[in-house]
Amino acid sequence: MTRASRWWHGALALVIIGSLVIQLVLLFSGGADANSGETGGGIGLRLWRLFSYFTIESNLFVLVTALVLAWKPEVDGRLWRIVRLDALLGILITGLVFAIVLAPQVHLTGAALVATIGFHYVSPWACVVAWLFFGPRPRMTWGTVAGAFAWPVAWLVYIFTQGAFTRWYPYPFLDAAELGFGVAVRNASLVVALALVFAVLFKFLDRRLPVPGKH
Predict the structure, then answer these.
(1) What is the pLDDT of residues 168-193, one digit of tens each?
(2) Nearest to 93, CA basis, from 22, 7, 204, 193
(3) Residues 197, 202, 207, CA angle at the centre, nearest 5°?
(4) Contacts of 37 (CB under 8 A, 6+ apart)
(5) Burial of residue 68 (number of CB atoms within 10 Å: 0-12, 13-18, 19+)
(6) Which of the residue ranges 30-34, 39-43, 134-138, 145-149 would you say has the lowest mean pLDDT?
(7) What residues have CB less than 8 Å from 80, skipping those under 6 apart?
(8) Which of 9, 23, 95, 124 could make an S-S bridge to 69, C-beta 3.0–4.6 Å?
(9) Element (H, E) at 154
(10) Distance (Å, rounded) from C-alpha 62 to C-alpha 69?
(11) Is 88 a residue whose pLDDT tops 50?
(12) Handedness of CA 46, 178, 124, 87 (dihedral sign)
């Protein structure tokens, strides 16, 4: 089981690294952004926007946790538990929101399509499957759940603050300039509420699913 966990997380890390490399090559060569399909703007602006996407940040959380788990599957610690739950929640929300809301609006081809498949389809479901099969668990407390919401809430504050000055928002349903601040905050609150539901579900399953490697 330990060997399988290492191989799975190693493969997941390679998918994310490959997607990031493809995206960065596209960015520096004037190609499409795998999150939005946009091609314009200077390098500095495109880099800043790329790493402002929740998709990219959640994939970075998954990348870090996958690399650590490929090295040390039984790793533990208070901060680690929060980071691990952030990876799970962030990437699950990324996968669901992209598939349900954003995919019909983003039309990609070629290398950008390959990158978006890695970011939005392979990474989310491979990460969740890895947790279900390999754990490690039990690892979650209510403190872990509370701590895991510091990053997404901080991200939302950042997005709405910078958007007030730049009028750029990474996702249409958060576009306060177009929708109005109240509607955008309502949409953000719905996503946070969905994440809270999944966090409680993960907490429930963390104590009730079989512990990997034990019978």
Answers:
(1) 999 999 999 999 999 999 999 999 99
(2) 193
(3) 135
(4) 106, 107, 108, 112
(5) middle
(6) 39-43
(7) 68
(8) 9
(9) helix 150-166
(10) 10
(11) yes
(12) positive
User: Do 26 and 33 form a contact (C-beta atoms < 8 A)?
Assistant: yes
Is residue 50 within 8 Å of residue 116, measured between CB atoms? Answer: no
The pLDDT, as a whole number, for residue 213 is 61
Per-residue pLDDT for 155 more than 90? yes
Are the C-beta atoms of 11 and 69 separated by less than 8 Å? no
Using CA atoms, how far residue 177 sits from 38, 70, 142, in Å, is 19, 43, 36
Tabulate helix, strand, coil % of the chain (nearest 5): 75, 0, 25
Q: Which residue is associated with the tokens 């081809």?
A: 109
Q: What is the mean pLDDT of residues 9-20?
A: 98
- Is the pTM above the cut of 0.70? yes
How is residue 210 annotated by DSSP?
P
Which H or E element spans position 177?
helix 176-179
**pLDDT for 214:** 58
Instruction: List the one residue out of 96, 83, 91 whose CA is nearest residue 119.
Output: 91
Q: CA 22, 98, 4 angle in degrees (round to 5)?
A: 65
Phi-psi region of 38 (alpha: psi -120 to 50; beta: other; left: phi over 0): beta
